[in-house]
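Lecture notes, unit on protein representations.

Consider one protein chain, 143 amino acids long.
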Amino acid sequence: MWPRALRELCRIEHPIILAPLAGGPGTPELAAAVSEAGALGSLGGGYLAPDALRAEIRKVRALTSRPFLVNLFAHAGAPPAPPRPEAIARARAFVAPFRAELGLAGEPALSPPPARRPSSSRAARRRDTARRSRPLPRRRSSG
């Protein structure tokens, strides 16, 4: 039941949604290609400043007239605590046999957490930018 509802709501042919992929391999070209194929293309806008997000949305719109979505996130509260050394040791012990099987030497590197989180005002500007850009067509009421 939900795949049909999803197709109707998003005006797509296939109940498939591209993962937004913010800050990485997601591009306006990929989002547009997925939308053109009849699924729901996604643009990851979580790390973009409002002007950059607006530019990315314009790129997608230049490549397709089909619906696509813009994914945003807003951090709230204090940053998470760093992982405890014992938790890191357990995780490394868990993956050690897989790393050995693949011939990966040494310990896996740990990435530090982001230096700062976006401010709530910046997140609000991104949200407003995405809303004004309306990647999905508005639904028309019947009646």
